[in-house]
Amino acid sequence: MPLIDFNLYLITDRKQLPPGRDLVDTVAAALAGGVRAVQLREKDLAAAELFPLARELRELTARYGARLLINDRLDVALAVGADGVHLGGHSLPVAATRKILGPDKLIGVSTHRPEEVATARQEGADFVTFGPVFFTSSKAAYGDPVGLDRLREACTTSLPVFALGGVTCERLAVLRAAGARGVGLISAILAAPDPATAAAALLTGLRDTPPPL
């Protein structure tokens, strides 16, 4: 099983960038701030548009020794030599994805209920995101936040769980206390005035708040 050697998982959404800011430049700043795992999640882009962006991010993340995962698109992930894919509710099953990618690629799965975490583990996922724990506009379509109690329940597994939704530095302690291996986020870095500084602050907060044993 591939090693999960990160606890901060940056998810892209160019629509959350401040006006005039470039996505690749922002990801570069986040990597300079210490981010070592990026999910390219521009779901509205066709393959012909997503591929050059993925290729650029692959080159960029490789320079920093960071992981790059592609949301849903196995073809794009394979074409650019990404480190893996992130699957959602309408993606291929984990087992089928593993047959295509092989044993050395990462497979992340989006989950919203503890039972989905258990299923992802049984099917051979490497990690999951779980949420939204707190309200966030990017996940408003998924309904009300699941809250800390549900996160705590989801984290009673050996599978690494990344808390997602409304993540801020001030909330890291409670998320880690609930058992989260790490956090996944978008706006806390992409929309920050200084993405590198924001990333560094989040990583410091994660180091200072280890999850319970």
What does this molecule look like?
It is a single chain. The chain is α/β, with parallel strands linked by helices and 213 residues long. It is 39% helix and 16% strand. It has helices spanning 23-32, 47-63, 74-80, 94-101, 114-123, 147-154, 172-177, 187-190, 195-208, and strands spanning 8-11, 37-40, 67-71, 84-87, 106-111, 127-130, 161-164, 182-185. It has an 8-stranded parallel barrel, surrounded by 5 helices. Helix 1 crosses helix 9. It is globular. The two termini are 21 Å apart.
Q: Which sheet architecture does the biggest sheet show? A: 8 strands, parallel, barrel
Q: Kindly report the spatial arrangement of strands forming the biggest sheet.
A: 1-2-3-4-5-6-7-8
Distance between the termini: 21 Å
Give Rg in angstroms.
Answer: 16 Å
For the structure shown, list the relevant keywords.
213 residues; 8-stranded parallel barrel; 9 helices; 8 strands; 16% strand; globular
In short:
It contains 9 helices and 8 strands.
Give the topology, please.
Layout: E1 8-11, H1 23-32, E2 37-40, H2 47-63, E3 67-71, H3 74-80, E4 84-87, H4 94-101, E5 106-111, H5 114-123, E6 127-130, H6 147-154, E7 161-164, H7 172-177, E8 182-185, H8 187-190, H9 195-208
Parallel strand pairs: 1-2, 1-8, 2-3, 3-4, 4-5, 5-6, 6-7, 7-8
Helix pairs in contact: 1-2, 1-9, 2-3, 5-6
